[in-house]
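Priority: medium. Attachment 1 of 2:
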C-alpha cells in the first residue's frame, strides 16, 4: 500500500479490507514522497501495520502494489493498481516538460505525464469509476486503455450503504430529534470554501438558532495537515465555543454526509458525493477554471443552487429546501459511478487476478460508513 497523503491512505483502507482473513497475503505500507505527506506517518502507525521506509520499499520486489496517487510510483517494483483518491477525475493539470507547458490541460489521473514512464504504461491496472472515463482516458492517454477497468467507487457505495443508518449517525453527531443538520464541506486551497469565505461559519452560527439547527464542518485532510491540527482548531476556536461542531480528519466523512439535512460545499469530492443523499446540496463557491467540463463535478456546478453572501442565510436554506427535490441531482449522481454497489466485488477480482491467486469462496458485502465522531 503506497500512501502519499492521509486522503489517499483513507481510500486505500476501503480496498485493503478486501484481502482480510486471507493468510496467503501480507500487507505492507510505505509512505511515498508528497508535499502533503504531513500526518501520513501517524496514519500508518495508528493502523498497527507493517511499514517500510520509502527507500527500502523501492529496493524490494512485491507481488502487487496499490496507490491512490501518482507521485514517484515509477520507483516501485511491482505490478501496480492505480485508483482515484476522490470522486473520479475532475481537476485539470497541465502537461509539462520540465518547467514548460507542452500540451493542453487534462484531468489529473488521466494524463500521460503520470501514467507513462519512458514511454511505457506504469500501471498494471487503472481503476475507473464510470464508463465515460474510458472515453476520456482514450483521448488523453490511449496507451493506457488496455489496463483500465470500470470498477466502481468505494466511497459512493459505502455512503449509500450507510443511508439506512442515518438516525444512528445523527445521534453520534449530537443532533437532537427536533434539530436540522447543516453540513459545511470544504476542500483545500485558496479557491476552497474555507479559503474564500471564512466568515460563512460565524454567520451560520449567528443566523441559525441553536435550538433548531446543528452545524457540522468537514475539512479536507489537506487543510488539517497542511496547516496543522493545532492551527485549524485555533482558527475555529471561537466558532467551537459558540456551538460549531468539527469532524476530525480520521472520522468517516461519508457518515456525516448521510446524516445531513443540507450540504453546503465547494468543488471538493465530498460535495459531489453529497448528491447521493437526496438532500439539498448548495454551492458556496466554485472556481471558474480548473475543473474538467466533462466531469461529474462540472455537471454539479451547472445545476446546483448557490448560496449568496447577501441576504439571510436561514431564508436561503429554507427556499432551497422547498425548491430542490430528491431527484434534482440524479444526472450528477449517475455520473459518479456506473457500477453502483459493485466496487468491492470488481476490485477484489482485479486484485486476485493480478496476484494470480484464487479468490476466497465468499461474496464481499459493502460495509456502511463507520459511525462518525467529533472534535472534543
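Attachment 2 of 2:
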Amino acid at each position: 500500500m503506497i500512501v502519499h497523503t492521509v486522503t489517499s491512505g483513507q481510500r486505500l483502507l476501503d480496498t485493503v479490507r478486501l484481502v482480510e482473513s486471507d493468510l496467503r497475503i501480507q500487507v505492507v505500507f510505505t509512505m511515498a514522497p508528497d508535499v502533503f505527506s504531513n500526518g501520513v506517518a501517524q496514519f500508518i502507525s495508528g493502523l498497527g501495520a507493517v511499514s517500510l521506509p520509502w527507500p527500502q520499499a523501492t529496493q524490494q520486489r512485491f507481488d502487487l502494489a496499490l496507490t491512490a496517487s501518482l507521485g514517484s510510483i515509477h520507483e516501485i517494483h511491482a505490478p501496480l493498481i492505480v485508483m482515484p483518491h476522490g470522486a473520479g477525475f475532475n481537476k485539470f493539470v497541465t502537461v509539462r516538460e520540465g518547467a514548460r507547458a507542452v500540451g493542453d490541460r487534462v484531468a489529473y489521473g488521466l494524463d500521460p505525464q503520470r501514467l507513462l514512464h519512458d514511454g511505457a504504461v506504469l500501471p498494471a491496472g487503472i481503476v475507473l469509476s464510470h464508463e465515460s472515463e474510458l472515453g476520456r482516458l482514450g483521448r488523453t492517454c490511449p496507451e493506457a486503455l488496455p489496463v483500465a477497468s470500470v470498477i466502481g467507487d468505494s466511497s459512493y457505495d459505502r455512503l449509500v450503504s450507510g443511508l439506512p443508518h442515518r438516525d444512528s449517525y445523527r445521534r453520534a453527531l449530537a443532533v437532537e430529534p427536533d434539530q436540522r443538520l447543516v453540513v459545511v464541506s470544504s476542500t483545500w486551497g485558496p479557491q476552497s470554501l474555507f479559503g474564500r469565505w471564512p466568515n460563512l461559519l460565524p454567520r451560520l452560527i449567528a443566523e441559525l438558532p441553536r435550538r433548531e439547527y446543528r452545524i457540522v464542518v468537514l475539512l479536507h485532510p489537506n487543510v488539517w495537515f497542511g496547516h496543522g491540527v493545532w492551527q485549524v482548531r485555533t482558527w475555529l476556536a471561537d466558532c467551537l465555543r459558540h456551538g460549531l461542531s468539527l469532524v476530525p480528519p480520521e472520522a468517516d466523512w461519508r457518515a456525516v454526509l448521510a446524516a445531513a439535512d443540507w450540504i453546503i460545499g465547494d468543488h471538493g469530492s465530498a460535495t459531489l458525493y453529497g448528491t447521493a443523499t437526496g438532500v439539498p446540496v448548495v454551492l458556496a463557491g466554485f472556481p471558474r477554471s480548473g475543473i474538467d467540463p466533462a466531469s461529474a463535478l462540472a455537471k454539479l456546478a451547472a445545476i446546483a443552487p448557490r448560496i449568496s453572501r447577501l441576504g439571510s442565510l436561514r431564508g436561503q436554506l429554507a427556499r432551497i429546501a422547498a425548491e430542490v427535490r430528491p431527484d434534482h441531482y440524479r444526472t450528477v449522481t449517475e455520473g459518479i459511478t456506473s457500477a453502483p454497489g459493485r466496487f468491492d466485488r470488481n476490485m477484489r477480482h482485479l486484485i486476485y487476478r493480478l496476484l494470480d491467486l484464487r479468490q476466497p469462496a465468499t461474496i464481499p458485502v459493502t460495509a456502511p460508513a463507520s459511525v462518525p465522531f467529533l472534535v472534543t
